[in-house]
Each structure stands twice: as C-alpha cells, then as structure tokens.
Amino acid sequence: LNNRPGLDRLVRQVDAARERDEGEIITGGRVPEGKNYERGFFFLPTLITGVPQESVLISEEVFGPVLPIATVADLDEALDRANDSRYGLGASVWTRSADVIVRATRELEAGIVWVNQHLRTPPEVPFGGTKESGIGRENGRRALDEYTEEKTVLIRL
User: Fold this and answer.
1) Rounded to whole angstroms, how far apart are CA atoms 70 and 48?
2) Domain extents for the chain?
C-alpha cells in the first residue's frame, strides 16, 4: 500500500472480519513477514469467501489486495447487494451474456462499470465515484473543469 494509515486501515478491516467470523480466509489475510518486507507497507493478496453483507469488507471501501467473495442466488440479488452501499466508486461484472451486461451497466450505482475486466481506465476516460465515493472526476476532457472556476464579467462603456 502507499502509506502506513492505508495499511493500518486494511489490517483493521481484515482483522474485524476475522474476529467476527465473517467468512473464510482462503489465502493471505496478513502482513507478510521477513526482511524483504520490513521497509514498505505490504499486505498479502487475500481471498475471503462467504462474506456476509454486513461485513466491514462489504460495507466499507477496501483499498488493498483483498477480495471478499459472496454467493448470490441470481442477478437481481447481485445488483441489490452491490447497490446496497453508501459507496459507488467502481463495479465489475463478469459474463458472456449481453442481457446481463445491459442490465448491470444500467442498474449498477457506480461511477465506472467494467465488463470482463477491472481497474483498467485509459487516461481519456473519466474516472470517479458516486454516492460517498470521491469528488468529481479524474481523466478525460471534463477533468479540467474540476480545477477551474468560471467567471463572468459584464462591462458597459
């Protein structure tokens, strides 16, 4: 991770899920040990299955190599659970179904939706969240709008 507070937050989130028995850690779930990891803010790639909706790993934004996995019955439940969050930075859907792609891209409440990929954002594409995820947009033509302020001046001579 890029700083100590980010690492500490991630450790707290995973530890809270572990203490509350919110899923099964399949791999990772901790800071790696050893001389190679003494300088830096490392956390092992982590997969956790059976994560309930109320888990901090679902209800908070997790900025680190942690993937909480939850099983759902169908697309309706998946969309409901994904949208049942105060955050909406990004979402991804993995499918070969055109119908699922259409529904997911329309109904997911996120600033960006990836289909069959995740975290790739070309510099010309606006990136930013909805709800309580981020302010404004980065990248793209309109990104400069966030850093400028228009001023109108009317003069009669």
Assistant:
1) 9
2) 4-147
The structure tokens listed for 80 are: 């409901």
| Confidence label for 42 from pLDDT (cuts 50, 70 and 90) | very high
Please provide the distance, in angstroms rounded to a whole number, between the alpha carbons at the two ends of the chain: 59
Homologous superfamily (CATH) for 4-147: Aldehyde Dehydrogenase; Chain A, domain 2 (3.40.309.10)
**Contact of 85 with 67, CB cutoff 8 Å:** no
Q: Which of 14, 19, 79, 77 has the alpha carbon at shortest distance from 47?
A: 14
Cα 149 to chain centroid, rounded: 29
pTM: 0.80
Note the Cα 43 to chain centre separation in Å. Answer: 17
Does residue 36 carry a pLDDT above 80?
A: yes
CB proximity list for 34: less than 8 A, separation 6 or greater: none
* pLDDT value at residue 109: 95
Dmax of the chain from CA atoms? 75
H or E element: which one contains 100?
A: helix 98-107
